[in-house]
């Protein structure tokens, strides 16, 4: 009897709890849906673009189908006459239906000469072959008798491809579809990823070196003074990124205030070159990201009771020993949070390096936007974006494990 | 003695770092009042000509208006959805909550160029590319996590008995929200709104991908200006934006203090 009532009570309590959870989720649902539609789905779309091949299976369906068994063969020669005939027929159709330029653009990503090869061949294509179609096509351009163009068509003939992801990692498939490193003279993407990581690492380290003593000073001051000085830390945080970038451009230029001051102090005789190169990028990025390092370290340090240091020193430990053995370990969670946050934000940086850096200081983000907006190679832009996203998500995962997602604080 | 030296060193380092944070912003203010067109100190004479150029230019006026429209769209969506979600998630423990939080916060972390690229592909077929509304939607997704975080923070001090007392006295859930919950969390909502607005008002990368010449926003206008030829007009705009930032910062700071007082924390 009593057991029954307990069970009933427990069940109804659980029901009430579940109702409350569901009601809470109901209130959260609009944000979940909005984030899904306007944030997650676009990013998922980018991931899909990075493996989506292009229009060839739709424009040249028969050729695409016929090329599959050819691609599967171990050692390839030039495809047989059936492929040539199907290709010639579909090339004319594509030319008449004006879908050819789309295909030519896709093939041009394989080799910069293939657009004109395709367009010129379509213009000179006769109604009927003179001899075989193979002879006709090689007569128009001898390249049709080589394996390279057919291998390129083969790579473009599927719906899903790893070409872009491979290219983003400076690899490619050769004429036999074996994965090979890209020619060093054209391998730029891994270098740009490494450069991004290197710049981010240096900036994170500099931010830590500058933020730690400042956070320590603020944390050991009376609350009201600390709050007042904190406003100075937060001011750049609230100021437009472009304003800060413009300021640094003005300050670092040859005739700018910094060079003037250094010359006036007699430290240099020639003005230093500080814009459109690496030091400028690092200085400006450190300035932009510094508040993100100060805030987490400060909030952790504020929670460290001052008694611990007093106890250690009263027991005879010299200040630096006490600091190293007691205070520093306690402040480490803030240091980890700050470093991860600054590093994650740094690897996605784009505007500051673009405006202050030179050609050799560009981050991977600006390469992505260049590929998407200037060369219109969306597949490659998406693939490079995918690589950057994977790195960021991995770091974010570490961050949420170490710090927790509730730990993101805003001043 | 050693402690004094340590104190002096620590103060000097701290002041140097604070100077590094703030001085770069102040350098451009006097140059924006220069009567000359070169960008260096000292200025040869004081004039308001760059402000006149800025404020009478239809291009800058249009950009300013566009930015305000986009910011208003983004902020109103972000504040509504973010506040509701913060209330729904408060004191609500369930499996997968940290994963959900991780996803909802992720717009703050994902590199902006990826958001821009994804939106660029996603919006074009929907006809939302090259529209202020589309840009506002993208910015709302970026700003909502800020609202979620600031409102959640004010809710941690919120005594749920207040809401229970109100409903036991017969108030409907909507009345409870309007008369009891909202006044307590208002500072969090407003500072979240400020964050969301600034996020949109300062955002240039998504704007570069999604806007045409007619939807040019203020940051985009500044970006093009800095890129082509940085002129004192841009520094005048920058100075106004610094003043704007100071106002926002002080508002946010006052709200934070008021919220702490309301919740009895400090």
Task: Give an account of the 3D structure.
The complex is a heterodimer of chains A (411) and B (266). Chain A is mostly helical and 411 residues long. Helices cover 72% and strands 1% of the residues of chain A. The longest helix of chain A is centred in the first third of the chain and has 48 residues, at 2-49. Chain A is extended and about 100 Å long. Chain B is mainly α and 266 residues long. Chain B has one domain: MetI-like (MetI-like fold). Chain B has helices spanning 2-32, 49-56, 58-89, 97-105, 112-126, 132-155, 160-168, 173-201, 205-210, 218-228, 232-262. The relative contact order of chain B is 0.13. The chains are: A mainly alpha (411), B mainly alpha (266). Chains A and B meet through helix 1, helix 10, helix 11, helix 12 and helix 14 of A and helix 1, helix 3, helix 4, helix 5 and helix 6 of B.
CATH T-level fold name of chain B: MetI-like fold
Low-confidence stretches of chain A: 407-411
- The total strand number of chain B stands at 0
User: Cα-atom Rg of chain B, whole angstroms?
Assistant: 23 Å
Outline of chain B: globular
Straight-line distance between termini of chain B? 35 Å
Q: How many alpha or pi helices of chain A?
A: 19
Helix content range of chain B: over 70%
Oligomer: heterodimer
Pfam families (chain B): BPD_transp_1
Subcellular location (chain B): Cell inner membrane; Cell membrane
Protein name (chain B): ABC transporter permease
Family (chain B): Belongs to the binding-protein-dependent transport system permease family.
Structural features:
heterodimer, A: 411 residues, mainly alpha, MetI-like fold, 2 domains, two-stranded antiparallel sheet, 2 strands, disordered C terminus, B: 266 residues, 11 helices, globular
């Amino acid at each position: 009897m009593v057991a029954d009532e307990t069970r009933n009570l427990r069940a109804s309590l659980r029901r009430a709890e579940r109702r409350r959870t569901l009601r809470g989720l109901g209130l959260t649902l609009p944000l979940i849906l909005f984030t899904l539609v306007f944030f997650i789905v676009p990013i998922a779309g980018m991931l899909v673009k990075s493996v989506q091949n292009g229009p060839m299976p739709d424009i040249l369906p028969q050729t695409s189908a016929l090329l599959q068994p050819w691609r599967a063969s171990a050692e390839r020669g030039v495809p047989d006459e059936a492929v040539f005939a199907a290709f010639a027929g579909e090339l004319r159709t594509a030319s008449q239906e004006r879908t050819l330029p789309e295909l030519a653009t896709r093939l041009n990503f394989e080799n910069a000469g293939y657009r004109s090869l395709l367009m010129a061949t379509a213009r000179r294509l006769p109604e009927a072959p003179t001899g075989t179609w193979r002879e006709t096509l090689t007569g128009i351009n001898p390249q049709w008798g080589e394996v390279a163009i057919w291998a390129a068509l083969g790579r473009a003939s599927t719906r899903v491809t790893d070409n872009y992801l491979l290219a983003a990692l400076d690899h490619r498939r050769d004429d036999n579809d074996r994965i090979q490193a890209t020619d060093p003279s054209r391998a730029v993407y891994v270098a740009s990823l490494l450069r991004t990581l290197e710049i981010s690492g240096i900036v994170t380290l500099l931010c830590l070196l500058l933020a730690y003593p400042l956070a320590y000073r603020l944390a050991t001051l009376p609350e009201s003074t600390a709050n007042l000085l904190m406003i100075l830390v937060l001011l750049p945080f609230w100021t437009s990124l472009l304003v800060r970038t413009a300021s640094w451009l003005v300050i670092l230029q040859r005739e700018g205030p910094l060079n003037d001051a250094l010359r006036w102090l007699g430290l240099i005789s020639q003005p230093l070159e500080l814009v459109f190169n690496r030091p400028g990028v690092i200085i400006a990025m450190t300035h932009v990201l510094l508040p993100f390092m100060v805030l987490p370290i400060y909030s952790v340090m504020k929670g460290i009771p001052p008694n611990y240091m007093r106890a250690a020193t009263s027991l005879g430990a010299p200040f630096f020993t006490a600091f190293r053995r007691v205070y520093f370990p306690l402040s480490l969670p803030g240091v980890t949070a700050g470093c991860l946050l600054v590093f994650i934000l740094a690897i996605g940086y784009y505007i500051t390096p673009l405006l202050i850096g030179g050609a050799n200081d560009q981050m991977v983000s600006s390469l992505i936007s260049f590929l998407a907006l200037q060369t219109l190679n969306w597949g490659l832009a998406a693939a490079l974006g995918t690589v950057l996203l994977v790195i960021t998500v991995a770091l974010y995962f570490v961050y949420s494990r170490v710090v927790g997602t509730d730990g993101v604080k805003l001043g | 003695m050693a402690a004094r030296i340590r104190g002096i060193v620590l103060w000097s380092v701290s002041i140097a770092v604070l100077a590094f944070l703030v001085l770069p912003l102040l350098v451009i203010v006097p140059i924006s009042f220069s009567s000359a067109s070169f960008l260096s100190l000292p200025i040869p004479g004081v004039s308001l000509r760059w402000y006149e150029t800025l404020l009478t230019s239809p291009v800058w006026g249009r950009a300013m208006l566009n930015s305000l429209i986009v910011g208003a769209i983004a902020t109103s969506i972000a504040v509504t959805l973010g506040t509701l979600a913060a209330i729904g998630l408060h004191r609500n423990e369930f499996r997968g909550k940290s994963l959900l939080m991780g996803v909802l916060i992720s717009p703050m972390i994902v590199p902006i160029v990826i958001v821009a690229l994804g939106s660029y592909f996603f919006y074009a077929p929907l006809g939302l590319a090259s529209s202020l509304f589309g840009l506002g939607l993208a910015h709302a997704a970026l700003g909502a996590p800020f609202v979620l975080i600031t409102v959640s923070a004010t809710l941690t001090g919120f005594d749920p008995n207040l809401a229970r007392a109100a409903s036991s006295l017969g108030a409907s859930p909507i009345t409870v929200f309007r008369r009891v919950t909202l006044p307590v969390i208002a500072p969090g909502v407003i500072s979240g709104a400020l964050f969301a607005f600034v996020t949109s008002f300062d955002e240039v990368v998504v704007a570069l991908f999604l806007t045409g010449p007619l939807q040019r926003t203020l940051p985009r206008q500044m970006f093009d200006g800095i890129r082509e030829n940085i002129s004192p007009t841009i520094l005048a705009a920058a100075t106004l934006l610094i003043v704007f930032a100071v106002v926002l910062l002080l508002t946010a700071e006052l709200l934070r203090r008021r919220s702490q007082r309301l919740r009895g924390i400090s």
